[in-house]
Specification:
Largest sheet: 10 strands, mixed
CATH superfamily of the largest domain: Vaccinia Virus protein VP39
Radius of gyration: 32 Å
Number of strands: 28
Number of helices: 17
CATH topology of the largest domain: Rossmann fold
């Protein structure tokens, strides 16, 4: 028996939930979410156990408009590989993640182990959960403690995704599920269906309780609604005690309410209805003491002493006169003494973006039949996720698709100021329709085509590379929005393009170390936020940002290296941001390096780098 079973009554809620989750994952677990993980494990995940993922530069696809602009990233490759690299370069550095994963409808091009998963696959739900679980666990490690994640989904996998996210992000960090109206109720897609999907859904989780939802904000500085004055026509109104309050009662002929021009000395009127009946002290007072007098004291005014935050010392209430055909009373208040310029309201969990979804096809200047998300919808999510107040935030979308998230964040920067950065990750998969187009163009049977794919025929690989989603949709869209198209003004930003690559751990020892070092450089530059240009010397290479401001990486050419020359050169560098020193032997003396002014030595906890005798990061802030 597990010792924890003997101590169940002493566990707190979180410990008990974790214990239940572990039981779910055992063969005997029957409670909660469980699925078949072993029948067909994901090959891409297994591949990362045999080789190490890194990044490879694709400089011909970089879009660098101005060194003063922020560098955003587009990473082409399977998102599990991309996330694996990002766990080193961006661990706990992401402020907001938005993803629009495959909905697993059987018709949405969801690919698992190089095969489209259709509606007849008996294990399609298990495959989808295997696929999502691995990626969401990596994604959680990328979020800052005050970060959040938003996930679009439809009803096919909504309920299991909620359970999966409760497990990964913890149920206490679940915020809400939004229903998002995406089409008109009469805009029927398929007339033979019994039900018409009008809404999709959006799951909202935080990393921890350090995240704060940015509520709706409304200007609270205007005095336009403060236009009323109460004129008391008697000095001897009837006095009454209501609870702990002294109340002066005015009959309809003992007062006048005068409406005039807006003034900071005037009052505003609020109708006591709906949630206001219990939502504040004025509503509760009215319901407790005045509501029952609707018939007997119609038209009365009540001056309730010691109430309100407007400094008047009282608050007026009225019951409508008979014949007004009104069922609710009113209260009058002055300007709050310490009111803020902005008032916050909670978001409803129903969002109507029907018009934006209906017009989304034109956005970005590219066609994407798998479904774009509207830019306005995404900018709304950025606001709700608190990015208006985070001018240097980093946003990640690892199901980037058409690149809507990138365009939305660039527009968000333009509208709100700041240098927020995005990281878009997408594979370069082709759609079923693209496969059909290739077969038709080459007059191939399905059997012939499947043979070409299996043999990795160059003709097919070239076609797939050119017509994959990243090459033909995501990257062209980023070109459009950064350079302008069809009257669309170019946005400020630079795009650096990378592909995922692998380093195999076989081959001759010397060649292995050279290969490892070369292939690590782009990844380290991404970590440091530096674009790579190369400067070579006989003994070692230095990779810089091209402006002599932020040296990123030093690579020892370890054979025949003049160590004294290296140290001398190191001391001459001006304003370096970070230097990585790779060494196979004991030539690197950390004590000498620490003597170089203003540098700090940091450990490098990455699988490839651990193979070296010594890898040192020196930083100068």
């Amino acid at each position: 028996m597990d010792k924890r079973q003997e101590n169940l009554e002493n566990m707190d809620a979180e410990e008990l939930r974790e214990y239940i989750y572990e039981l779910n994952e055992s063969e005997s677990g029957k409670l909660g979410l469980s699925w078949d993980r072993e029948r067909e494990p994901e090959k891409i995940v297994e591949q990362c156990g045999e080789m190490v993922p890194v990044l490879e530069e694709v400089p011909e696809r970089d879009i660098v408009r101005d060194p003063a602009f922020q560098n955003d990233l587009l990473i082409q490759g399977d998102n599990f590989h991309s996330l694996s690299v990002l766990t080193y370069t961006h661990s706990e550095k992401i402020d907001l993640i938005y993803i629009d994963p495959p909905y697993n409808t059987g018709n949405d091009n969801f690919v698992y182990n190089d095969h489209f998963v259709d509606a007849d696959d008996g294990f399609r739900h298990s495959k989808w959960l295997n696929f999502m679980e691995k990626r969401l666990r990596l994604a959680r490690d990328l979020l800052k403690e005050d970060g959040c994640i938003l996930i679009s989904i439809n009803e096919n996998e909504l309920f299991v995704l909620k359970l999966l996210c409760d497990r990964i992000f913890k149920e206490k960090n679940y915020l809400t599920t939004f229903s998002v109206k995406v089409r008109h109720e009469d805009r029927i897609l398929k007339g033979d269906k019994d039900f018409h999907e009008v809404t999709e859904f959006l799951l909202f989780y935080r990393k921890s309780d350090k995240f704060r939802v940015s509520k709706r904000r409304e200007d609270n500085s205007s005095i336009e609604k403060y236009v009323y004055r109460v004129q008391e026509l008697t000095d001897a109104p009837e006095e009454e005690r209501m609870g702990s309050k002294t109340v002066y009662k005015f009959r309809p002929d003992q007062y006048k309410i005068i409406k005039g021009k807006p003034s900071a000395d005037a009052l505003s009127v609020t109708n006591i209805r709906g949630s206001l009946k219990e939502g504040n002290s004025s509503g509760r007072f009215f319901m407790a003491y005045l509501n029952e007098r609707f018939e007997s004291e119609a038209g009365f005014l009540y001056k309730v002493m010691d109430m309100g935050a407007d400094g008047l010392g009282y608050r007026y209430f009225t019951i409508p006169e008979q014949g007004k055909n009104r069922k609710n009373g009113d209260y009058y208040q002055g300007l709050p003494v310490n009111r803020s310029a902005v008032k916050e309201f909670p978001y409803p969990n129903f969002l109507d973006f029907e018009v934006d979804f209906n017009n989304v096809a034109r956005e970005g200047g590219v066609e994407f039949r798998n479904g774009k998300k509207p830019v306005e919808f995404l900018k709304f999510l950025f606001t709700m996720g608190g990015l208006e107040d985070k001018t240097e935030a980093v946003v990640l979308d690892f199901f980037a698709g058409s690149g809507s998230t990138g365009q939305a964040l660039l527009e968000f920067n333009r509208e709100h100021g700041g240098n927020r950065k995005f990281i878009l990750c997408t594979n370069n998969e082709i759609s079923k329709q693209t496969e059909k187009n290739f077969r038709k163009e080459k007059s191939l049977s399905k059997k012939q085509f499947d043979g070409m794919k299996e043999k990795k025929d160059p003709a097919w690989l070239d076609y797939a590379e050119e017509n994959g989603i990243c090459s033909s949709v995501t990257w062209p869209r980023m070109q459009n929005v950064l350079q302008g198209y069809d009257g669309y003004e170019p946005l400020e930003g630079n795009l650096l393009y990378y592909r995922t690559n692998f380093v195999g751990l076989s081959g001759s020892r010397d060649q292995l170390y050279y290969d490892l070092t070369e292939k690590c450089i782009p990844m380290l530059c991404v970590k440091e936020g530096t674009h790579v240009l190369k400067e070579a010397t006989e003994e070692f290479r230095i990779y810089t940002d091209g402006e002599e401001k932020g040296y990123t990486c030093v690579y020892f050419d370890v054979f025949g290296m003049d160590y004294d020359l290296f140290v001398e050169r190191l001391e001459q560098l001006q304003g370096p941001k970070a230097l990585y020193i790779f060494a196979l032997g004991d030539q690197v003396d950390e004590r000498e390096l620490m003597d170089v002014e203003d540098y700090r030595i940091e450990p490098i906890p990455y699988r490839i780098l651990e193979l070296y005798k010594k890898v040192v990061r020196l930083s100068k802030e």
